[in-house]
Amino acid sequence: MKDGPSVSIITPTYNHERYIAECIDSVLAQSYPYWEQIIIDDGSSDGTQDVISLYKDKRIKYIRQENKGIWRLGETYNKALQLAKGEYIAILEGDDFWPPDKLELQIDAFKCTDAILSWGKAKIVDHQGYFLTVLPKDIKRFMGMSKERVLGELLFRNSMHSCTIICRRSALMSLGGFKQPRGIPCVDGPTWLELSLAGQFLPIDEVLGCYRRHDSQISSKMKTSMVKAGLYSLEFFRNLPAEVKKSLEEEVYDINAKLQRKAKENYYYLGRAYLREGKWLDARENFLKAIKDKNVPSIKAKAMIGIICSYRKTDLEKLAAFSDKLKHKSEN
Questions:
Q1: Per-residue pLDDT band at 331 (split at 50, 70, 90)
Q2: What is the dihedral of CA 64, 118, 98, 211, to 10 degrees?
Q3: Of 173, 197, 221, which one is at a domain's C-terminal end?
Q4: Cα separation of 196 and 174, whole Å?
Q5: Residue 153 contacts residue 143 (beta carbons within 8 Å)
Q6: What would the pLDDT profile of 135-173 be if each residue is shown by its tens digit?
């Protein structure tokens, strides 16, 4: 007899032949047994389907679709959400995997709270599975944060790795599902921003997911698009209701100045990304935005160097790496 709430695991996958077995095996190894895994294959052209076909567990549901690509990623996630029957929704992309007690830890934690989302630390590994680091390193500071403070954090940086997240299905459905604004190649950041307005988040000081870094993932291939995703949070803030903005301003010190600084930083990083792609005019336009109006001196100096690089048709990655190294030395 079933004696616990069920979890629907959404697993989007595309050309993950090399990783999908470890992903599925980590779900099968869970100490918590009441789950279903909904794997949406976005038209893989490698052996991903062949690997998945070797698994006969009835809790694993495989759906193959014609390739929609990253710009329709929200459709893929929401297709899985519509099929989901669980009380909770977990995210596990086809190149990531879980520790065996992940579901048990989080379902137990939900019993003691009315939070709509729980998350934890992620172990970061490389393409071969070798350990790199654990993030975030400061998760304890998120404990006991108000909804407003959580939203404030998400506006500046998303510290939550999707492979660690479980949320209540009812909360996601109340938003109309996962969010992917036009021109943004991801669903996580925009969706968590929306959810932060709907209820409390519960951080857990445990490793709850393993995130793999490799050259073929979206964040590695689409540098300019990922930087543009960072700019979305500024647009999100501008469109908030007046009362929410007011409560944010009361909770988060100097939030408008901080958001302005973030905008300048994003334009600077977007300029850098365009330099790497050899789009010299686009790079120059974004560096100019970074130094427009009220200037942040450190960003202005770097953006000026970027403008020079755009005329010389070279990137500034070596110089930036040297600058980062000097900054790290001075901080230590």
A1: very low
A2: 80
A3: 221
A4: 13
A5: no
A6: 999 999 999 999 889 999 999 888 999 999 999 999 999
